[in-house]
Amino acid sequence: MFLIMIHYKKPIEIVDQHLADHRNFLEEGYKKDFFIVSGPRNPRTSGIILSQLKSRTQLEDILKQDPFYINEVADFEIIEFLPVKYHKDFASFV
User: Fold this and answer.
1) How far apart are CA 82 and CA 61, in angstroms?
2) Predicted model pTM
3) 10 Å Cβ neighbour count for 14?
4) pLDDT of residue 94
């Protein structure tokens, strides 16, 4: 499982110019079962994506299709972890 930290490297006004395309990218990722949850941090200085994919290489290839990556709006920090405890309703993702 992976936690992806999206670190904005452009002003929020530039981020917002690419936000609709980024959300469309995420929607496609949900349809293909790449992502579990995503959203902006509070305060809105960056974002978070949680992915249940098993392959880091596959995830990296997918993230390179994100408009935030393509347009150099953000950097992606990928943190891999192994969930050992989780709520029973979350079991299907683990």
Assistant:
1) 21
2) 0.91
3) 15
4) 80
